[in-house]
Amino acid sequence: MSGKLLRLVCTVAVAAGAGVVLVLPPAAAAPGPEPGGRTVTQQLTDLQRLYREAEKATETYNATAEKLTKQRTEVARLDLELARARRSLHDSRVAAGRLARQQYQGSTEISAYVRLLLARNPQQALDEGHVIGQLARERAETVGRLTENEKKADGLARAARKALDGQLSLAERQKKDRDDVQARLEDVEKLLVSLTPEQLAALAELEKKGTDEAQRQLMASGVLSSERRPSRKGDRALKYAVRQIGKPYKWGAQGPKSYDCSGLTSQAWGRAGTPIPRTSQEQWAQLPRIPLKKLRPGDLVIYFPEATHVAMYLGEGMMIQAPRTGENVKVSPIASYPILGAVRPDQRPRRL
After folding, report:
1. Which of 293, 282, 252, 260 has its CA nearest to residue 345?
2. What is the domain extent for residue 331?
3. Whether the Cβ atoms of residue 15 and residue 343 lie closer than 8 Å to each other
């Protein structure tokens, strides 16, 4: 597979107040048809689509993997609680067995009432009666604990079985998601190996022109004209991300040797003391959103309508990202892909 994996920015949608700014690369720069009948623009469009499909499949895999991790934790917790409940049940059954033997062995004893009538010392008999009553209550409590522990153990056993079934189902889904990612990447590789070096060079040039024009229009719009300083945690997250520059992209990876896009951002903010969701889609769905005109270093920029890519804003119109298979963590123009919006992991919730 070529080490240069390509993506064209066709449009960049930027939320600026109530409006939307569309940034379009120049259509006139597209080369003419290749001998095979497809233009470089069409080839690049195909490649972009395949990369987006692979990235979407990767984020689906990541989401399933995160759910599976949580489910395994829940299974382990329930197993531990079930083991404790079974030990308590065993102790309750031992106590209940001892109670049954005591009742059987003492079945011919004179009742406490008769003992009181025949006693030479009524007070002593009353004291003994109090003890007998206490023993009766303890026996009732023993039976109650046995019944309660049996119910608890049965309930936990059912919950543990259900959790285990869920884990097995997620594990099967994870395998299917993994196979889907592999299939998408194989499609990318097939397209790349079918291209000549000249075609690859033309694709790279077309991509660069599109990105440069999109970046020029975005910066000229003034949306990012006001630079801001990062927060303390944002600065720590940014410094972590900068230290990862040059490390390879690997789908499903969260470091320390390689990353995918959301693996980089989630690890950076986690190291800064603010854990965030694992996937770009959940980062977009759960983290506080901010307008691009308020963007500051350390904030996260989300890309594509499906929120399938994420990068960290560096400042001055640049971002740090883990792009895709075959590339390394690097600094890129913020307009390299269609922008969906931005989020700030350490944004304080508004007071009502």
Report:
1. 282
2. 12-27+38-63+197-343
3. no
Q: What is the CATH number for 216?
A: 3.90.1720.10
With both helix axes pointing from N to C terminus, report the angle between 40-105 and 197-220 in degrees, rounded to the nearest 10: 80
The sign one gets for the Cα dihedral 291, 292, 298, 299 is positive
Q: Which amino acid is at 60?
A: T
User: Which of 118, 144, 178 lies at the terminal end of a domain, its last residue?
Assistant: 178
Q: Do 297 and 234 contact (CB within 8 A), yes or no? A: yes
Short-list 344, 334, 235, 253, CA closest to 290:
344
Q: Does an H or E element contain 275, and which?
A: none
Environment class of residue 153 by beta-carbon count within 10 Å: exposed (0-12), middle (13-18) or buried (19+)? Answer: buried
Decide if 51 contacts 324 (C-beta within 8 A). yes
Report d(CA 351, CA 345) in Å as an integer: 17
Residue 270 in domain: yes
Residue 209 lies in a domain: yes
Query: Which residues, 6+ apart, have CB-to-CB distance to 49 below 8 Å?
Result: none
pLDDT digits (tens, 9 = 90+) for 120-165: 555 555 555 555 555 555 555 665 666 776 777 778 778 888 888 8
Q: Would you give the distance in Å from CA 41 to the centre of its chain?
A: 35
Give 253-272 pLDDT, tens digit per residue: 998 999 999 999 999 999 99
Q: Please list, in sequence order, all residues whose beta carbon lies within 8 angstroms of the beta carbon of residue 180, skipping any fewer than 6 positions away.
A: 57, 60, 61
**Residue 29 near residue 40 (C-beta atoms within 8 A):** no
Nearest one of 71, 68, 8, 61 to 263, comparing CA atoms: 61
Residue with tokens 């406490």: 112
**Domain for residue 171, yes or no?**
yes
DSSP, collapsed to helix, strand or coil, labels residue 176 as: helix
Q: How many domains does the chain have?
A: 2
In a domain, 70, yes or no: no
- pTM more than 0.70: no
291 vs 18: CA distance, rounded Å:
10
Cβ neighbors of 319 (< 8 A, separation 6 or more) are 301, 311, 312, 313, 331, 332, 333, 334, 336
